[in-house]
Design brief:
Number of domains: 5
Number of helices: 19
Number of strands: 22
CATH class of the largest domain: Alpha Beta
Strand order of the largest sheet: 5-6-7-1-2-17
CATH superfamily of the largest domain: Ribonuclease H-like superfamily/Ribonuclease H
Radius of gyration: 40 Å
Helix content: 40-55%
Shape: elongated
Largest sheet: 6 strands, antiparallel
Distance between the termini: 28 Å
């Protein structure tokens, strides 16, 4: 029940009491009167009834004043004092209660303020001692952070669910995704962030396959197993990735139930684009030398053979042929100098391959074929000592693709595998029984796009075989009436990877949060999750005006992420937008953004997809979110970008936790919460301030029994401010 309703009920009750008192007085007076006197009194009362009603109403005036004064002094003042105390205890220790209400409540407020002053003084003393005790440790950590930032390699650490726990600046630069469109040329957003999923950057199947490889090697007793694969970064760069496991300590909750005790993994990224391009340039060098020298060598050879065939040749003819040899030799020399000079910076780089036991590769292929295709597999003779130099993921895709074509086109119901050494090569056989396959079919399979089990690969089987410097052919074994594809792959010597996890004194990332090891992953059941356990994208927009339905457009979007209760000011999204219309004078005055500043910026259809990706796996937070979300939803049809995440509004949450405060503007809330309002009226500045306010609201919401996302959304919808529409 609201305060106004309570006062109204109290007034009605008071008026009823007044009327009851008048009636009781009349009854008492009439009890001692004779019958004719009571009749006279009744007649008088009947005649004066309207006046009595007016008098009773007039008596309500002082009652209203008295009740309102009592309510403010003895009901509203203690409630405001309670809210002030909660703010001091949870959100802003520097906040102080304003003495109001009765003298007793005023003295109580002064006592709480004095207690808060003493508590804050004591807290400052404790914090100062803690800072002094940690000073030397922090100095060491800063030195280690500097070392991490200077690493030539990009480093990303994830938990077992693929959530990013750590990364350095080089990883953030390498894993950036450029905005599309001519106006967005040179602009990019990073896909790396604490709590974000590595699967949004790299193919999930690649990561899972690498983890399976590590588990296999752990089962074989390897002490420091690693896995390698090559993939494409979001920017199009070719990246070689080395994965190493992170093991949990004894008693570590995150390690309980984890396969092999693995609580996460480290990815070391190496940009090999230039090395691959260098290899291609070397191939071009060889081709240029071959084509450019063949004619000159032919002429020299013909001249030499002619001189040798005719020893009695006259001197003039001999000199002519010798001249031909000299001219061709000079041309050949000049061509070599020119070619070598052009390709002097080219170095040979082979496609990175890793050493792997052949039996482990076959086991992985068997699991994939049986799970993806439902096709039974068996083993024939497999040499356990054979090691191969392979890109295991792509080769596994190729063999699975062959099994898929055999099942779909020739009705093969079972495949078998064999592996044996053959000198410097190993023969990997895919064996089946059935009708013979024509040579045209086998050639077509090698050049067709690979599709199997609902997955597609950009590589062809021929490209995979060439990548491995291997050969593949189809063969029939007549004595057993069986057929097989044989892949001849170069063998490798088993070598233990020389990698070990750094000790805590060897490296420290610039951006990290190891508490995320124990943080559960994002799930669809977000409403049941505690507010403190969720990841948020706090955002704000600046616009050409205040009428989204009237044609105003977004001119700037700013956002910052909150992960594990921390506002990550280095993980931000900030982008100006070309609205294709002019700024209103009022909008320019408030935001400082002029129309000329927006002419060369990308349009909203290029910016929204990048912003949507920044917000993946988060809950959206904004102040007066209805305004910003209206702009975004009006662009859904034109851009195809939809924001389906839950949304929290700090305007509505303020009305929930501070119902007795009148001001719910962002500046007023920030002042109550002790947040410094710096950077106002820029999208990113407002987003950061909203994020700081929201973090201080979470403990206050808990004081009101609101601890989960679902409870916060339900409470917000009940406030009177939730009726605002745009």
């Amino acid at each position: 029940m609201s305060d106004r309703m309570r006062i109204g009920v109290a007034l009605l009750a008071a008026w009823g009491l007044v009327l009851a008192a008048i009636g009781a007085a009349m009854l008492l007076v009439g009890a001692d009167l004779a019958d004719y006197q009571r009749a006279v009194l009744a007649a008088v009362l009947q005649e004066r009834a309207p006046m009595l009603v007016v008098v009773s109403l007039l008596l309500l005036v002082p009652l209203v004043f008295i009740l309102n004064t009592l309510f403010r002094r003895h009901v509203k003042a203690p409630r405001r004092l309670g809210e002030d105390i909660r703010i001091m205890m949870t959100a802003n220790p520097a906040h102080r209660a304003k003495p109001r209400g009765s003298s007793e409540i005023r003295r109580l407020a002064e006592g709480f303020n004095a207690f808060a002053d003493a508590h804050e003084t004591l807290k400052r003393d404790v914090l100062q001692r803690v800072r002094e005790a940690n000073a030397r440790i922090e100095q060491e950590r800063n030195r280690l952070a500097a070392l991490m930032s200077e690493l030539a390699q990009s480093v990303v650490m994830c938990n077992v669910e693929g959530r990013i726990l750590l990364y350095n600046a080089r990883a953030m630069q390498l894993l950036r995704k450029p905005l599309e469109g001519e106006a967005a040329a040179g602009k990019a957003v990073s896909l790396v962030g604490l709590g974000r999923s590595i699967f949004a950057i790299f193919d999930r199947n690649l990561i899972i396959h690498a983890l399976e490889t590590i588990h296999e090697r752990l089962a074989q007793g390897a002490r420091a197993p690693v896995a390698n694969f090559v993939t494409t970064a979001p920017s199009g760069l070719l990246v070689r990735v080395q994965m190493a496991p992170v093991f949990g300590a004894a008693g570590d909750a995150a390690a309980e139930g984890a396969p092999g005790g693995i609580t996460g993994f480290v990815l070391i990224l190496d940009n090999i684009t230039r090395r691959i391009e260098s290899g291609n340039r070397r191939d071009l060098l060889l081709q240029t030398l071959t084509q450019g020298t063949r004619a000159s060598l032919g002429s020299v050879r013909a001249a030499v053979e002619t001189i040798a065939a005719f020893p009695d040749m006259d001197q003039a003819a001999r000199d002519r042929f010798i001249g031909i040899i000299g001219d061709e030799a000079r041309q050949l020399s000049d061509k070599l100098d020119e070619t070598v000079g052009e390709f002097a910076d080219s170095l040979r780089t082979e496609w990175p391959l890793e050493d792997m036991r052949g039996a482990d590769l076959i086991a992985a292929v068997q699991r994939r074929i049986e799970s993806k295709l439902g096709l039974p597999t068996k083993l024939e003779t497999v040499d356990e000592s054979v090691w191969l130099k392979v890109d295991s993921y792509s080769l596994m895709q190729g063999v699975t693709y062959l099994a898929s074509r055999l099942r779909e086109e020739f009705g093969v119901r079972e495949v078998r595998f064999g592996l044996e050494a053959a000198g410097a090569l190993a023969h990997l056989d895919l064996i089946w029984s059935g009708a013979p396959i024509g040579s045209e079919t086998t050639m077509a399979w090698q050049t067709d796009t690979m599709e199997m089990g609902g997955e597609a690969s950009p590589l062809t089987l021929k490209q995979i075989v060439e990548r491995h410097n291997a050969e593949i052919w189809y063969q029939i074994h007549k004595p057993s009436h069986r057929e097989f594809f044989r892949i001849a792959i170069p063998v490798a010597k088993p070598e233990e990877a020389a990698w070990s996890a750094p000790s805590p004194r060897e490296s420290r990332p610039e951006f990290y949060d190891f508490d995320l090891f124990n943080q559960p992953g994002q799930t669809p059941e977000l409403d049941t999750r505690p507010l403190a356990a969720l990841a948020y994208a706090v955002f704000d927009t600046e616009t050409t005006g205040l009428s989204p339905s009237g044609g105003d457009e977004i001119v700037s979007i700013g956002a910052v992420r909150i992960v594990n209760g921390r506002l990550l000011e280095h993980e931000v999204f900030e982008q100006l937008v070309n609205p294709r219309r002019g700024m209103s004078p009022e909008a320019t005055r408030i935001t400082g953004i002029e129309s000329a500043m927006l002419e060369n910026q990308p349009t909203i259809d290029k910016v929204l997809p990048a912003f949507r990706q920044f917000c993946d796996d988060t809950v959206l937070v904004a102040h007066n979110a209805a305004f910003d979300m209206r702009f975004l939803r009006l662009k859904e049809e034109a851009t195809g970008v939809r924001f389906t995440q839950p949304v929290l509004d700090t305007l509505l949450l303020s009305a929930v936790i501070h119902p007795d405060f009148e001001g719910h503007a962002l500046e007023a809330i920030a002042e109550r919460m002790g947040v410094n309002p710096i950077g106002r009226h820029t999208a990113l500045g407002d987003a950061i301030m909203t994020g700081e306010v929201f973090l201080r609201m979470i403990p206050l919401l808990a004081e009101h029994g609101i601890r989960t996302l679902g409870e916060a959304r339900a409470a917000s919808q009940k406030t009177y401010l939730a009726r605002i529409e745009y």
